[in-house]
Amino acid sequence: MKIKPIGERILVKLVKLEEKTVSGIILPGSNDKEKSNIGEVIAVGKGEKVSEIIVGDKVVYSKFSGTEIKDGEDRYLILNIEDVLAIVE
Q: φ and ψ at 57, to 5 degrees?
């Protein structure tokens, strides 16, 4: 599937975060309880406000925002630029 956002929107692939203990043990299934609000930017629209976001950036967005799209096992969100809160560096 090829999706190209238009205007002031971005396409974000949802990142599944692994929860670890202090000693480094990965806790399986602990992410199922709460939805992450971090994603990797896959495509960017041509609007003026999206100019500081580039493909490959990881962004934090408002919970319960955007339109979710599934492609097989992958999950994506189309977000308005106003829903992006920060870029993760």
A: -65, 150
